[in-house]
Amino acid sequence: MAVIVKERLRELARIRPAGHKVLSLYLNLDPSEFPTPRDRSVELESLLHTAEAGLRADSLDHAQKDELKRDLERVRTFFKEEFDASGTRGVVVFAASGADLFEVMKLPSPVSSEVMIDDSPFIEPLTAVPGSDGYCVLLINRQVARILVGGAAGMREVVSIVDDVHRWHDQGGWSQARYQRGIVKETHDHVKHAADELFKRFKQGTVQRLIIGTPEELKGDITPSLHSYLRDRIAGWIEIDVKSSPANVAKEAAAVIERDEQERERHWLERLKSELGRNARGAAGLEATLEALNERRVEALLVQHGVRAGGYANAAADFLSAEPGESPAGDKLHEREDVIEHAVESALEQSAEIVVVRHHPDLESIGSIGAVLRF
User: Fold this and answer.
1) Could you tell me which of 76, 71, 109 has the C-alpha nearest to residue 90?
2) How many CB atoms sit inside 10 A of residue 89's CB?
3) What 8-state DSSP symbol labels residue 147?
4) What are φ and ψ of residue 282, in 5° steps?
């Protein structure tokens, strides 16, 4: 199961193969809607037929149409011969044979089925997958530590540690005191071992938020052993057996993840309201937000979940506008059916936070999009 991390989204946002088009296909595999292989097959064929109809567009040249035909056939073959839907709620495929791109991500949550042919991968839906953006769970007792990544809909184990820590017992005497000091050191070394492994994962980009499950008596040892970057990312604590299955871990973590997402949204919404109220580092509405993105001033982009908006962009999509015209460099602006997608890509490229607002209606009154600015 894919863990959707910001760094990979940034890499995808940068892919704009000159002269080639990218096919992006999202397939909903929610078992409540598509319970049988036949249901899933019908949904996939519907998407592929939609894409095939799009090949007749005048904006595509002959070479691009041939490449996309190969891409569609490769997608069809992949789902027929290689794909396993077990435990998957959604899947996305990015394909561009002219740029040697074929990437499949299994998703832990359902997504809306849609297909897009554009100059770059269509990544906006990935930013809206709840609880999948780098949530990490550390389960640890005095001997065993496990690190799992994923979200509320599913977790997978990436690290398992078993250290030789002796059991504590009470016999008294000087030798017993020395023995107990040895156990304390072994426990400290075990916790540090787990913390070091966790920090490695953080540097790889897979730990955006941290959830910890540990016995009460170990809580005081865990936090001081974590790097300060990780301490700042603790979303909450859970009570769970260290040997629990990934499915049970995801179930226990779900409430922490939902609360953490709500608090994160509220934090950025209050920041935006405060900056707008002071007429300072805030932008509200499509026009002002796109202008701030063009100026690379955005610290956090806030977008209401599911919102789409038409707009304009130059060929490289590095200048965005709510109105037709030209870029400052004189490039002609082309109409885009959904300029929000390009706004998300621009925000990722400038290392901004992406905040997809699901739990609060605050953005709706200002055009469903806004930004907290760096300066």
Assistant:
1) 109
2) 21
3) E
4) -145, 150
Here the tokens at position 167 are: 């059991």
Strand 144-151 to strand 135-140: parallel, antiparallel, or no bridges (unpaired)?
Answer: antiparallel
What are the structural domains of the chain?
A: 6-127 (3.30.960.10), 135-260 (3.30.420.60), 281-373 (3.30.1330.30)
The amino acid sitting at 144 is V
Q: Give the span between the Cα atoms of 216 and 233, in whole angstroms.
A: 20
Other Cβ atoms less than 10 A from the Cβ of 60: the count is 16
Alpha carbon 13 to its chain centroid, in Å, reads: 13
Query: CA distances (Å), 313 to each of 290, 298, 318, in order?
Result: 10, 18, 7
Per-residue pLDDT of the chain (375 residues; tens, 9 = 90+): 445 556 778 888 889 998 999 999 999 998 888 888 899 999 999 999 999 999 988 889 999 999 999 999 999 999 999 998 887 889 999 999 989 999 999 887 788 999 999 999 999 888 766 555 568 999 999 889 999 988 877 788 989 999 876 554 444 444 555 545 556 778 888 999 999 999 998 887 778 889 999 999 899 999 999 999 999 999 999 999 999 999 899 999 999 999 998 999 999 999 999 999 999 999 999 999 999 999 999 999 999 998 999 999 998 889 999 999 999 999 999 999 899 989 999 998 888 888 989 899 999 999 999 999 999
**229: nearest Cα among 214, 259, 211, 208:** 208
